[in-house]
Amino acid sequence: MIDLEALTAAVGDLNEDELLRMLNEFVATNPSPEEAQAVVTACQRGMAIVGDLFENGEYFVGDLIFAGELLTQSIDILKPVIGSSNSTTIGKIVLGTVEGDLHDIGKNIFRSMAEAAGFIVYDLGIDVKPQAFVEKVQEVQPDIVGMSGVLTLALESMKNTVEALKKAELKKDVKIIIGGNPVTSDFAQMIGADAATNNAAEGVKICQNWVN
Amino acid sequence: MPKKINVFFPAENIHIQVQTGVTVSEACTLAGKPLNLVCGGKGKCGKCKLEIEINGLHKEVLACQEIITRDINIFLPLEEEWNSTQILTANNTNLRKLKPLVQKIFLPKTVLQTPPYQGDWEHIQKQAAINLPNPPLSQLQKLSTICHRDDLTGITLVTAQNTLLAIEENDTTQDNYGLAIDLGTTSIVAYCYNLHTGEKVGTYTALNSQVSEGADVITRISAAAEKPEGSKLLQAKVVQTINGLIEKAVHQNNLNPNTIYSLVLAGNSAMQNLFFGFYPKFLGRAPYTNTILSGLQVKAAELGININPQGIVTFLPLIAGFVGADTTAVLLSLLEKDTANYRLIIDLGTNGEILLGNKHRWLTTSTAAGPALEGANITFGMRAADGAIAKVKLTQGKIELTVIGGGKPKGICGSGLVDAVAEMLKVGLINASGALLTAEKYLAVCRPEYRQFANNLQKINNTNVFLLTPEEQGNNGNKIYISQKDIRALQLAKSAIFTGCQLLLKASGLKENELTEILLAGAFGNYIDIHNAQLIGLIPSWGIPVHSIGNAAGAGAISFLLSQEVRDQISPILEKITHLDLAAQADFQKEFIKNTNFPI
Ligand code: B12
Ligand code: FES
Questions:
Q1: Which site among A14, A150, B11, B227 is 20 to 30 Å from B403 CA-CA?
Q2: Closest residue, chain A, to B285 (C-alpha)
Q3: Among the listed ranges A98-112, B100-114, B240-254, B334-348, which one has the minimum average pLDDT value?
Q4: Alpha-carbon distance B412 to B572, whole Å?
Q5: Would you put residue B155 in left (φ > 0), alpha (ψ -120 to 50) or beta?
Q6: What is A91-211's CATH number?
Q7: Contact B225 A151 (CB under 8 A)
Q8: In B432-483, which ranges are E strands?
Q9: A57 and B589 in contact by Cβ < 8 A?
Q10: What beta strand segments (E) does B311-439 contain?
């Protein structure tokens, strides 16, 4: 039987060789879908470690990207044994960099990590007007709306976007998470968003809790 | 009646009265000692910490947060004594053929005999062989009283580029002064010139008093855009600082301010917007537009600048978005050395402006490094002022620090940070991805002669740090350290600059070895250790020499003030410049993330 703790640690350490070796060995034992699901959970727990290490600076943007890639790779290896009843899709996110801001590196990192964690992400790109968020939410009815912004002046756009969602009576159907260097939980509360983070890995964790 | 509260600044011997509800930082501004509010007074950066005394009790507070409710003593931190701040004023301006922006023409009494039935003004223009359309009414009124006076030796016309500024009594051609100003986000440098002889009279520097509204241009733009009357407020502050510099020049050289007829300014786009009192909101966010890019000439009186009210204030043209008049000025300063050789020019600052080209064409971009190199976002970061660690060397088990002013270290400035990280890389305390090793991991890999450094690796607030000073050495017994997060902040900043250089090179279609040199403009370029800056990947190596050219923006403004040739070159130069939008480059993200790593 696979050592789940060692697996979690391998993800946390970004130890690609060790992780892939363990997963391939595991798949070769022809495990049940339940066992496979437990392995997926163990991998995702590893992402929480990555998030903590990013938080105190030990990991950096490149590591986050690599972690996202590792997780995608892991899920691909596991797919044949996860079973069709256990869909790998856990929720839908509409994501974009808010109006007036063209910075998207942070947003892209969050997207790839969220996708790796099993979300379907509709990425609206950069400089996204409040109305564009509203229209996409109406169209795809996501669980979560994610907004990104690094300019101080982008905070105002986040506020406008939340208001536009409220006005279109969509706010009650979605959770809103905001991300980017200048956002704070206080600010999220003030504008009526549900969470704020400067850490993509933490953001993924928050989203996972919402859809569970 | 609201109660007045006494505020004392014991060291400066200042006493003011304020009303309750005023913050300590506002009181400092009222007392003429504005603090550098790095986070704009949001209580986030902790850089405004100072000591106060109420009822004999001393405590340390955040000046931007502490509200004054009773009589108080405020102890300004030493570094706030601006005059000790190092600002670069050296530059190599070679005097061209002198033909200043403002010229004075003396007409002796003998030629002032207007023929019967003719106009005085037409006669004067004919005598001076000059055509000056639309003379100001006030000056014609003056002319009507002095043109026919017998007690004068004649009159002097004050002209600038085919306009009449003023008419003066007698021969005043010797009294013609002008100032070239490098209007920086943090510091302002004024070079005063005698335009009659072309000689420099003096150099004067001051902290831009807009710092009380935030350290970086975006915070200033926000302040101007969001506060009621914000644009006016920020304009008033910078005008006040400039007037202070003029006052200094006038005072120290016994000049009459009315003999100063010209002011030439170079500064970044945000500084231009705020100097003229524009509403700058759309410069701070997409679409990053300016109200006017062209060079702008305005009467001094209109701006409240205390030179001759008829004098002219010229702001050099901006190039595009955040690439401002400082970049224009850098190119003007290089005109003499204009060659067909390709060069890369980097102006290191919060906003790094980069130029690549030769005398036929220039590519330019701005890259948002952020203020890490000026000490913001760095735990012990500070500007290059007294008490700042400016150089760091790790030798056989010892840490050698050079502190500005020679006293105990209080913090670390940009050049010190670059050194520290480079040295830590060299001895293996930091790996290529920027992670600071734990003592245990370090000991497993380090060279024997560097083992002692393991003692300086600690964990503070759950973050790995490297101590630069053992406890006793720092000011107030502070430990001064470089934290893992400081290294991360530097990585983002250096990658932004390096990636900007890289993509500019790519867009030019040139290869590294087709360039002949890299020039570093701005104060920072003179202080950093170039080798260390290359080692951490802040500036490229490309196998070509790197030279510092000092305050090239200031030098460019001076040459505009003094030389007609230079002024004539403005339009042709602007036509040769193409602006590259980094955000629109598909490979920016990939390269940016790769370049956050250290090139070992
Ligand atoms: C890279 C960069 C750029 C690149 C952007 C490329 C791109 N495609 O994004 C370029 C060079 C083009 C650029 C340009 C500009 N920039 Co810029 N830029 C930066 C820089 C160096 C790093 C930003 C970054 O990518 N950080 C790394 C990412 C990974 O961090 P992050 O965004 O915070 O994301 C993390 C989390 O917040 C989270 N996250 C992010 N989004 C989301 C969303 C959700 C839903 C969730 C859950 C999580 C999440 O996940 C990420 C990983 O954990 C910073 C300075 C600095 N040192 O920080 C300035 C900075 C952001 N830029 C700044 C400015 C002003 C500009 C310009 C407007 C002006 C200029 N100087 O030229 C231009 C305009 C550009 C444009 N046209 O938009 C300022 C903003 C100041 C302010 N207070 O508003 C900064 C702070 C620099 C400064 N002080 O001058 N910039
Ligand atoms: S904490 Fe006071 S200015 Fe930042």
A1: B11
A2: A100
A3: B334-348
A4: 43
A5: beta
A6: 3.40.50.280
A7: no
A8: 457-460, 463-467, 481-483
A9: no
A10: 312-315, 342-347, 351-357, 362-368, 388-395, 398-403, 411-412
Residue A76 — very low, low, confident or very high, per pLDDT cuts 50/70/90?
confident
Q: From ligand 2's centre to the CA of B27, what distance in Å?
A: 15
CATH architecture of the domain with residue range A4-82: Orthogonal Bundle (1.10)
Interface contacts (A, B; CB < 8 Å): 63
E-only strand ranges, B135-244: 154-160, 163-169, 177-183, 187-194, 199-207
Contact B484 A58 (CB under 8 A): yes
Query: Which of A85-89, B192-196, B286-290 is most confident?
Result: B192-196
pTM above 0.80, yes or no: yes
Per-residue model confidence as pLDDT tens digits over B380-390: 998 888 888 99
> Are B307 and B182 part of one and the same domain?
yes
Number of separate domains in chain B: 3
B46 Cβ inside 6 Å of ligand 2:
yes
Q: Which residue's alpha carbon is at the smallest distance from atom 73 of ligand 1?
A: B368
CA B283–ligand 1 middle distance (angstroms):
16
What is the structure's pLDDT at B402?
94
Rounded CA separation B179/B85 (Å): 21
The residue range of the domain holding B124 is 102-169
Q: Is A198 an 8 Å CB contact of chain B?
A: no
Chain A residues in contact with B366 by the CB 8 A cut-off are none
Give the minimum alpha-carbon distance from A176 to chain B in angstroms, rounded to a whole number: 23
B154-160 vs B163-169, strand pairing mode: antiparallel
pLDDT, one tens digit per residue, over B75-111 is: 887 643 333 344 444 444 455 578 999 999 999 999 9
Per-residue model confidence (pLDDT) at position B145: 94
Choose one of B300, B315, B330: the last residue of a domain.
Answer: B315
Residue B64 Cβ < 6 Å to ligand 2 = yes
pLDDT confidence bin for A133, thresholds 50/70/90: very high
If pLDDT is split at 50, 70 and 90, which confidence band does B473 have?
Answer: low
**ipTM confidence:** 0.86
Contact A101 B593 (CB under 8 A): no
Q: How far is the CA of A151 from the centre of ligand 1 (A)?
A: 7
